[in-house]
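Budget justification aside, the reviewers requested a transparent look at the raw inputs and outputs of the sequence design task funded under Objective 1. We therefore reproduce one unedited record. The lines immediately below are the C-alpha cells for a 214-residue chain.
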C-alpha cells in the first residue's frame, strides 16, 4: 500500500478549515493528528477541542498519534472523538495489550509506535495484535526534523517479520519524510508516510502530496 498522511501539526491553525479543505481535495489518504502532552515529549500540541473541527471539516480518516504518558486514560475518548485509528508509544506503557483492547472494543484501528532509540525487535511480539506499527524516523516531539537514515533497515526488518507471519500489519513512517525520500521509503516496505512540513510548507501542497504518492 502507498498511503500519504499529512500531519496537521504543520497546518495553519488560524486557517484550519482552509487547510483541511486542501487535504480533502488532495490525494492524501489520511490526516495524521499529533497529540503531545509536554511530558512524554518536550512539547505540547493540542487535544480534544481540535478533534471536533477536524472531524467536521476533514473528509479523510483521522490517524491519531498519541505522544503522551498514560494513553490508557485517553484512548477511548479519542475513539469517541472520531479517530479512525489510535496509536500510542510502546515505551510509554508497561503492557500495551489491555490498551489495544480498549481501542479495539471501540471498533477503531490500533497502532503501536516506537521512537528511534527503541529496539525495533520489541514490536515483533505485537505484530499480530495491531493493525499498524509506526516507526518514528525522528524523535517524537517536533515537526521539521531531519530524517534518520537508519530507519531504512528497520523498515526492511519489520516488513520481513510481517511477511514471514503472513500478516497484513501496515508500516507507517513518521518524521522527515519528503518528496525526495518517499519513493525509497515505499520501496523499503513502508505502507503509510506521514509528512508535515513537506506538505504544509510546500508552495503547492497538493502537488507535493501527489509527488510523494507517485
Ligand atoms: C513528530 C510528529 C510528526 C511530525 C512530522 O513528533 O509525530 O508527525 O508532525 O513532521 P515532519 O514531516 O515535518 O517531520
Ligand atoms: Zn506523528
Amino acid at each position: 500500500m502507498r498511503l500519504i498522511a499529512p500531519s496537521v501539526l504543520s497546518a495553519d491553525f488560524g486557517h484550519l478549515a482552509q487547510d483541511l479543505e486542501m487535504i480533502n481535495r488532495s490525494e492524501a489518504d489520511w490526516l495524521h493528528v499529533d497529540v503531545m502532552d509536554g511530558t512524554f515529549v518536550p512539547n505540547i500540541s493540542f487535544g480534544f477541542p481540535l478533534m471536533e473541527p477536524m472531524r467536521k471539516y476533514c473528509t479523510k480518516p483521522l490517524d491519531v498519534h498519541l505522544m503522551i504518558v498514560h494513553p490508557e486514560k485517553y484512548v477511548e475518548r479519542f475513539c469517541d472523538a472520531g479517530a479512525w485509528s489510535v496509536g500510542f508509544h510502546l515505551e510509554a506503557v508497561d503492557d500495551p495489550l489491555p490498551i489495544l483492547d480498549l481501542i479495539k472494543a471501540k471498533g477503531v484501528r490500533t497502532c503501536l509506535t516506537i521512537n528511534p532509540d527503541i529496539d525495533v525487535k520489541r514490536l515483533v511480539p505485537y505484530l499480530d495484535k495491531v493493525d499498524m506499527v509506526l516507526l518514528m524516523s525522528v524523535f517524537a516531539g517536533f515537526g521539521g526534523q531531519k530524517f534518520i537514515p537508519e530507519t531504512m533497515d528497520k523498515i526492511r526488518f519489520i516488513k520481513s517479520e510481517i511477511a514471514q507471519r503472513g500478516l497484513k500489519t501496515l508500516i507507517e513512517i513518521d518524521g522527515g519524510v519528503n518528496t525526495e525520500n518517499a519513493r525509497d521509503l515505499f520501496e523499503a516496505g513502508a505502507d503509510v508516510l506521514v509528512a508535515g512540513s513537506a506538505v504544509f510548507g510546500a508552495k503547492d501542497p497538493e502537488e507535493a502530496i501527489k509527488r510523494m504518492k507517485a
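The radius of gyration is 16 Å. The chain is about 30% helix and 20% strand. Computational costs for records of this kind are itemized in the attached budget.
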